[in-house]
Amino acid sequence: MDQQKIGRFLKELRKAKNLTQEQLAERLNISGRTVSRWETGNNMPDISLLVELAEFYDVSIPEIIDGERKSETMEKEVKEVAEKMSDYAGTEKETLIKNIRNLSLMGVCALAVYFLLDVTGAALQNAILESIYLYCQTLIYVTTLLIPLYTTGLLGKFEQRKKNKRFDCMSGPVRIIICVIGAFAVAAVVQILLSNIPIL
Question: What is the average pLDDT score of the chain?
Answer without folding.
Answer: 76
